[in-house]
Each structure stands twice: as C-alpha cells, then as structure tokens.
Amino acid sequence: xxxxxxxxxxxxxxxxxxxxxxxxxxxxxxxxxxxxxxxxxxxxxxxxxxxxxxxxxxxxxxxxxxxxxxxxxxxxxxxxxxxxxxxxxxxxxxxxxxxxxxxxxxxxxxxxxxxxxxxxxxxxxxxxxxxxxxxxxxxxxxxxxxxxxxxxxxxxxxxxxxxxxxxxxxxxxxxxxxxxxxxxxxxxxxxxxxxxxxxxxxxxxxxxxxxxxxxxxxxxxxxxxxxxxxxxxxxxxxxxxxxxxxxxxxxxxxxxxxxxxxxxxxxxxxxxxxxxxxxxxxxxxxxxxxxxxxxxxxxxxxxxxxxxxxxxxxxxxxxxxxxxxxxxxxx
Amino acid sequence: xxxxxxxxxxxxxxxxxxxxxxxxxxxxxxxxxxxxxxxxxxxxxxxxxxxxxxxxxxxxxxxxxxxxxxxxxxxxxxxxxxxxxxxxxxxxxxxxxxxxxxxxxxxxxxxxxxxxxxxxxxxxxxxxxxxxxxxxxxxxxxxxxxxxxxxxxxxxxxxxxxxxxxxxxxxxxxxxxxxxxxxxxxxxxxxxxxxxxxxxxxxxxxxxxxxxxxxxxxxxxxxxxxxxxxxxxxxxxxxxxxxxxxxxxxxxxxxxxxxxxxxxxxxxxxxxxxxxxxxxxxxxxxxxxxxxxxxxxxxxxxxxxxxxxxxxxxxxxxxxxxxxxxxxxxx
Amino acid sequence: xxxxxxxxxxxxxxxxxxxxxxxxxxxxxxxxxxxxxxxxxxxxxxxxxxxxxxxxxxxxxxxxxxxxxxxxxxxxxxxxxxxxxxxxxxxxxxxxxxxxxxxxxxxxxxxxxxxxxxxxxxxxxxxxxxxxxxxxxxxxxxxxxxxxxxxxxxxxxxxxxxxxxxxxxxxxxxxxxxxxxxxxxxxxxxxxxxxxxxxxxxxxxxxxxxxxxxxxxxxxxxxxxxxxxxxxxxxxxxxxxxxxxxxxxxxxxxxxxxxxxxxxxxxxxxxxxxxxxxxxxxxxxxxxxxxxxxxxxxxxxxxxxxxxxxxxxxxxxxxxxxxxxxxxxxx
Amino acid sequence: xxxxxxxxxxxxxxxxxxxxxxxxxxxxxxxxxxxxxxxxxxxxxxxxxxxxxxxxxxxxxxxxxxxxxxxxxxxxxxxxxxxxxxxxxxxxxxxxxxxxxxxxxxxxxxxxxxxxxxxxxxxxxxxxxxxxxxxxxxxxxxxxxxxxxxxxxxxxxxxxxxxxxxxxxxxxxxxxxxxxxxxxxxxxxxxxxxxxxxxxxxxxxxxxxxxxxxxxxxxxxxxxxxxxxxxxxxxxxxxxxxxxxxxxxxxxxxxxxxxxxxxxxxxxxxxxxxxxxxxxxxxxxxxxxxxxxxxxxxxxxxxxxxxxxxxxxxxxxxxxxxxxxxxxxxx
Lengths: 331, 331, 331, 331
Hints:
The structure is a homotetramer of 331-residue chains. Chain A has 331 residues and is an alpha/beta fold. Helices cover 35% and strands 22% of the residues of chain A. Chains in contact: A-B, A-D, B-C, C-D.
C-alpha cells in the first residue's frame, strides 16, 4: 500500500479533468500525413483516454470537459457514456468553440500530429462550471496539465483542485505539457508548480519537469533527485518521473526511491502510453496495491496500449493486463 | 458570346481567391456523423474546387490562398500542383493558424458538416500578400465571397479586386455566403455590395442575394427582377441567381433575362454543385461560348458533380461534360 | 457657386461623423508635458470641432458619435447641446469603452499629444447604429477619416456614406489620418480610396494623400496634379490639398485649379486649423459662396483658430470671420 | 514588535508592485465632473502612492510597474525619482499601452472617478520582466491586488511573490480590489486566496474580503472572526480588516485580536486613506514598532491624507505624523 490516504464511500473512483476530443488516425500505417487517404475516428484527449482506461479496468470514472454542440461533440459524449464513463460534468458549447481534434499519421515514432485547438471547447471551461459537490463525490481528481494552459480553463482547474483538497479528494497531476497552448515557458512553470504543490501525486516525464523548473533553473542540468527534492513538498507525496524506454523513477515523500523498467513490445504508435499508465496506476492504488506494484501495473498497461493501433480502444481490461504481466514474468 | 470583354494573351485563365482546405468525407453513406467510423481525405474549399474544375476542363487556373505549415497544408499544395493548378499565390503560415477543415456526413440532403475555421489560415491573407502583377497575368479573377468575412482577408480581397480592375482582368464574384464567419448580416450586406459593384459577373443563390440586400431591404419579399435591377450597376454585366432544383435565372446589363433548368440526377451529396457550375461557366465563357450556352455547361457540370461522392475529384473533364449534355439532350 | 448640387429643405445643414471627445490642454504655455501642472478641459475630436465651427457660424450641425457613460461623456454631450449641435445621433456606451481623450502641451509647434484611444467609444459605432433617415435629413454628411480605421466603426462609416448617396446628401471626406489607429498603411489606402470615390469633396494634406496612394504608388514622388487626376473620379467633384504654411491647392472635376494662401498669425498651437477650415468651407458652400470664396473663408477661419488657445471655443462667429477677412484685405 | 521575521541588511525597505499612473484632480472642489473646468496633475496608483508614503517617512522604497513612453509616463518616472523612490524596476512600454489614468472630482464622498485602463501599461508586466535578484534586495514586497486582475501581469505578480518567499522577503498583500479589471468575482476569489496564502500580511476592507471569499461562501453573512480563521493559514501571520469610519480590526496567527479606531478629520476626498495606512504601517513595522502601535501609525497617516486634497503630495512626513498623533492623544 502507498501512504496516500484515499477516501472511501464515494460514488466515483476518479474524475478526470481536461480535454476530451476526437482523434483521426491514419488508416494506412507508415504513410506520411500528406499521402494518407483515409482516417479512422476515435475518442482522444489525455483525460478522456485515462477515464476510458479506468473504466475498462472496472473503476468508476467521470469526466469534466467540454465539447462543441455538433456531430463530433455528440460522438465523444456517446462513446464515453457507452464506455460507462460518467459525463454529467461534460459541457456542450454552442458559442463557436470546437471539439479538440487531432489528425495523425500511424508510425512507431516521429508521428506528425496536426492539432486543431484554436478556440478549443475544453479551454472554455470556467470556474462557474465546476461543481464542488461533484468533485466531493470522487476518491481521486485527475488533472491533465494542459487544462492550465489558458484562461478561463486555467481558473476552472485551479478551483477544482482547491475543491478537491477541501473535500479530501486525492489529487493526481498528469503534467501533459503541450507548448503550443502556453504563452511562455515561464507561465507554464508558474502554474505547474502551483498545481503540483496542491497535488498528492505528480506524474511527468523528464522534459516536462524541465519545463516546470524553468522559473528556478540555476543550471541547465536535469537531475531527478533534485527534482524530487524540489517537488516532494506541500501536498505532494509521490513523484513519478518517466523516461520513455528507460522506464520510470518513483520518489516518495518519506524517502523511498525505486525504478520501474518498461515491458518491451512492438510499438505501433508513440502515444497513449502515458494515459494508459496513469489509468492503470490509479486503478491499482485504489485497489490497495502497494506503490511498486501499482507502478508496474501502469507500466504493463502502457506497453499493451502502444502495441495496439488506437488509444481508447487499446486500453486493456483487467484480465488482459494481468495476463500480460503473468506471461512476461514467466518469460 | 457574352458581352464581357475578356483580355487575351494572359498566362493564366482564372485565378481563384479564397479558402483552400481539407474535406473529410464520411466513408459510409447515409450514416450520422456521430456513427461514422472513417473519413476519406479530399481537397476542398470553394475556390480550390473551382480551380480544380477549371483545370480538369483544360483551363489554366491559379489560386491565392493560405494553408498551415503541416501535413494537411502540404497535402493541399501537392494536390493542387498535381492537378496543374498554379500555386505561386499560395501562402504557408506557421504562426498558429490552421488549414480550413470540413468534416462531413455523406447524405443526399441535410448533411451535417462540422467546420474548423477558428483562426483559419486563409483568413490571415492580408493586402501585403497580394501581388498586383500576378493578378494582371490572368484573364479572370474569381472571388469567393467568404474571403470578405473578416480582416485582414477582407482587405486582401478588396485590394485584389481593385488590382484586377486596373489590369483589365475580369472579376467574377461567387457569393458563397457562410453566416458563421461574419459579425453581422449588415456587415455582409455592405461588403458584398461593394465587391459586387466592382465585379463583372455576380453568381449567388436567392438566399445569398437576400443577405446582400439586408441594408436596403424595405420589404421582406425577395424579387429576382428587383435584385437584378439593383445589382446590374457599377461594373456588373451579368447576374446569375440560382434556385436549387428550380435552376437559375440569368440577367444581363443590356436587358436579357433567361432561365436555365437543372439536369436531374441521383444526388449523392448536397454540395459541390455551385463550384462545379462556376468552373464550367467560366471555362465556357473563356472558350467563346455564348452566355446561354455557358450557363448550360455550368448546370450540366453541377449535375455531374453532385451525382458523385466527392467535390474536387468529381469535377468532370471536358469529354465527360460534353457527353453528359449530349446524352441528356438526346433523351 | 461651386458645381456641387446641394439638396434644399433639410432640417440639418451638416452631420459630422466620427469621434467626439475630451481635450485636456496644458494650462501653462511652452512647458513640456512632463512639467505641466494643470490642464483645462475642452471638447475635442475633429468631427466635434467641425460641428461646433458650423454651429458658431450659424449653420445647423449634428453629430454621429459615441462617448462613454460617465462624467466626461456627459460633458461632451452637454457642451455640444449647449452649442446647439444636434446630438440625437450620439450614443452613450457602458460596456467598457472610454470617451476619446487627448492630453496636450500648449506650444506653437512640435506639441506632444498623448492620446487615450484604446477601446475608444467612438470606434464602437456599428452599422446597426446608423439611422438612414437621420442622414437623409441633412444637406451634407462630413466624414472624419479616422472613423474608417477599425471595425465596426469602419462599416458604420461606409454604410453612412452609402445612405447619404442614396438620399442625395452631399458627402465631404476630411481625411484626418492618424497612423496609430490603422493596421497598416495599405489598409488605410484601400479604405480611404473607397470612401473618396463615394465623396463629393475630399480634403486632406499632402502627407495624407501620400498615404491614400500607398497601394498605387509607382514612384516615391508626390505630385498634386497626379493626385487630382487620380481622385477626381467616381463621385468626386472637388479636391483640396492642404500644404500647411504654403496654403492649399484646389482642383475641380471640370478642370479648375487654383491656390489659396494662408493668413499669417501668431500661432498658439498647431492643431484645430483643419477643422476650422472644414467648418467655414462647408458653411460658405451652403450659403452659396463660390468655391474660391469658400476656400478663402476656410483659410481665414483656420488662421483665427490657431491664433487662439483652444479648438472648439476658438471657432469664430460669422462676424469675427468676416471682420478678420476685411481687416486683412484692407491691409 | 510583531511576530513577523523581517530580513535585515537589505538595500531596500519595500518594493511596491502594481500600477503607477497619473491622477488628474478637479481644481474646483464640490463640482460635478461634467462641470469641472480644469485638473491638477499628480502621480497616483495605489503602489505608487504607498512607495511615496514610505519615502516621505524616510524608508527606502522601490517600485515594479510599467508606464507608456510619453510625457505622462516620463512624468511618473521623474516624480518618483525626485521623491527618492527607486525606479529600476519601472518598465517603459512603446507598443500601444497607456499609463494608467484616473480623472476625478474633488468631493468628500461619492466622488466620480473616470478610469482609463484599457490596455493599461502596468498590466503588460509579465514574468519575464520580474527580476528575482531585485526582489531579494528588499525587506518587504508590497503587492497591490489589482496587479492580479489580468494576464500577463497576474503571472508576473504571482512569480514575484514566489521569488520573495524564496528570498525571505516579507510579503504584504493590499487587496485593492477593482471589479472592472476582473473577468468574474470567482476568478478574483481564486487568485486573491492564492496570493493571500503566500502573504505574511493581508490588508483589506470588509467588502474586499467578501469578494475573496466568493468561492467558499456558504452563507451570505460577512463575519470578521470567520474571515480571520480562514485566512490566518499558509504563510499569513497578520490580517487587517478595515471598516471605514469604524476603524480596523486586526488579527494575528497567534490569536491576538484588537480594534483600532480612526482619527476624525474633515475629509477632502475619499481616497488615499488605504495607501497612506499601508505605507505608515509598513514603515512602523520596519522600525520595530509593535503591531498595535504600527496600526495606529497607519490610521493616523490615513487621517492626514484624506484631510488634504491630493494623494502622493498629501503623504505625511514622520514629523507630521508624530505631531498629529501627539496632538490627538493630548486632546
């Protein structure tokens, strides 16, 4: 067991806050976007992916987001509802914003992704849309850091974190940094640090922590131990620093540090891993697995996801996840 | 022959000004957008469609537009270049705008189309981007009215029209009204009237002329004859009022008026007709066909286009167009 | 008499369209703004000044403008009403815009003027605010070109000009170019040319005509005769090119050209001359003076204005104006 | 002595962050703004006022702000420099923003103040402009809450607070709430709470604390004791709740609570009191006065200020302040 104190008797396991949108995946593999002839429609966006990951594992997930009032927005809502994700926190905007949209090649690495996020629906969320009582119904609030990138979504996100703290809802921050949404790296650093100081768990990769430290950086050198020392303050109990093929390093407030490797698979696409990790990690924590075991579950889930072609549909069930680990450990 | 005076000895037949973008057509027919599983990628946008229509008929077309600097923008450029459209007037923006994108169902009518045009690349065109000498190389400048909907594209478009008039380049205005791009109907009316007064030929449907007349409307009644009287002033020689299944009514400055019916076909989708019409109409005028004959060519081309699934690829060649008319007239 | 055809039997002589605001003049003369200790409050803004000039001469002037809903806005309304200017076309905005404000030193030349025009009230005028019937009640519509500098005031202004033309109301364009309000010189050139082509009289100084010609400039050389040839087209009958201490050159559509010198005075401040000129010129035209006489009246009025410390209050009465000319001609 | 731990050996006593601008005070007293004929020019803006108050008492004050590059901006810089305020943190903007400007009547109460803050220079401050080393040179950082009202000034302010905490510089938050600068009361509440939780001292009036509590308000009732309980957390050691003519109530983290009355005077204008209070209060704290004595000094300074016609010039010297208290206590 981790030393996190997780509330019991709540109707939801995890509420995921941030974007939910449409991903259009190239139907052809290893073809440049310019030459792709058709695309398959999927639900995407980090928080939506995580909610689906949780739901497929058997947890009760909800989402706070916004889509536009059209066929694509309705599709996102329908899909999540079908996957048993609670969508009472999903707004539908009809003032000109558009559902977040990503159009992507299908390659194992260096995938070009064209993002349509000018006046993105999810970034129109404002404090007034955040329901304090809803957040108090969940054991965990998962924050996708991109929701902090611009106002009024930024304020909605910070208020949601405050409400969670007041209600004893655990806060997990998935950094999910996307430079294009921010005015400057300094602004990113400021708000990520604020959000991190109010989060029980912070998950990011090395590059993301470098951005978070922009305001304080004295040297150009990245150093995981120093990062951990810096962030295991305020509310933060656990810090997970991911390093792609090198796996993850995990630090806890009480001084633990351990590494988790990756499960090698044939990679179909370079995204989805982080969301799959976060979903399985939180699921495991909620089931009472200890921290090391939970990180391993996350790692296995990430491996399964990237070996498949899509994001949401590629999230494993609990059986698939346990079998995968069993097979790998037997090998 | 029409009474238009068309310049000779120019390296281009028609330059089309306005948006060029990507259309994603539902692969499945008669399925709601929410349930569509995949989409086929095509080039779209009225001026791009018209340029392709002209090119397939054998005319030399160019385009003045802007796309974003990514796989989708490059695709639009590649496609047009491949179709022999001159793209020296195509800008590639890397300041955050995005290539115009339309995602659509495939139904004969009431097609839902989700449009991504927040910070659209084509609307970032400004006067400074318009090359007076390039416009002087063309016999016709085709204006897609949506380019007037917001600044700085509005000013670029008005300047292009002025340059055309100075150079003796014929100006054809295709109204192409899209309410979502305009601040108010009054603004639309103002700029459409300005552009119309400097255009030799104005093509629109009844609803579009109603919007154009918003500033002057004394009665709520639409009346084609009054519309013609109002607009056959300034530079305008020819006015074509389209009425969907009822065909078109054509008016000339020197008092002609005639109707052109439609060629009944099984309709696959409700768009593309206007662009196909405009392309074949201008092609015919340039070939020296008389006005009535040119309108008939436009009408036949529109029929062919809507009987096929896409826009650009569905534009007929000259052989196809002539055969279609021959078959229909023999019937 | 000029060859302008001026409507009779209208309740207003001139409606002035554009900004009306507050001028704060340094109480001390020849002191840098940094060291000025107090300011005197006056009404300012070119169209307001012109309306006052007309009113003091005995003409019936009206204004179409907008001020903010506060003590400064109310002051502007009160002052104009007191000066007998019709203010039924004056809007009062309470959505955050502010009355145009200029804070100025009092020097004969090189006066620093600090302008507060971020979200200026007058630039919030839109087409919907322009009353066609009101414009039809006036003999002349005076356009201050700065009203063209940004949307939605730009569209309001262009619509007002259209309404004037429809109603037979004479249109006088005072170029009044202020670079800070425009996106680019090219945009200025485009809209000034549009407005000029619909105006019966165009008044500007040499630098302003240079800006107006930016889109067409082949050579860097300014040339009054070429400018006249370029602009005495469309609706334009009279062109007045001012050259400061060198006086003005006047051109007419029917080939007249004459020069008008200035009346030398001791200059107190370098502004107000143009507005005073325009007011007295229009007054004289309306009284049936011939063109040359009217320009002389304008020139004398300008001289009187700059020899006094303020703008509006310094506008001469008819007696003052006639005496001034009489004295000078006797000298 | 208060229980605040104030750093020693710093080159500056207090850096004030926020707006610095121009106040134009009606020369005539008790006249409506509409009828005022002239105005006197003064430096204004809460942080500028506080810096001047400190400087006149003998403390070394600095300012972090921004003005526009014109006669008014230069005047603000010159004045502050003359008053011995350090202005190395003062930016001068030439991208179109304007120095904050307030134009006001001179009445004892219900003064109309017209504020020009559209694109205000001070609100263009961004994180990149904040010099960590400069803040580390000061004993206290005084934050004027209006600097939090919009981006990028909001981020600059939050970063400055962080830098202060890192450097051991005491943070004093003067709430200074102005509704017109904020998107919503909820946003105000969020950011004021964040800033308060990082501030050692928070000073505001009852209405301002009501706004700060908007996100948490369960009942409509204001209650000073509950407010104190809510805010004496995080970094906050001292809370001062002002209630106009009723004086102030002061709370400390270690459980003290006391009231301070006002010194009755004939009021010339209803503003300046808070800035004068804050300046004298910080001065006294820095001199080692105890908390109760420091609040009394603030209160006396406020009384002196409102009995005079201006803000900055009306700030008392130490002699004036001590004499005033001595006289009043003798009475």
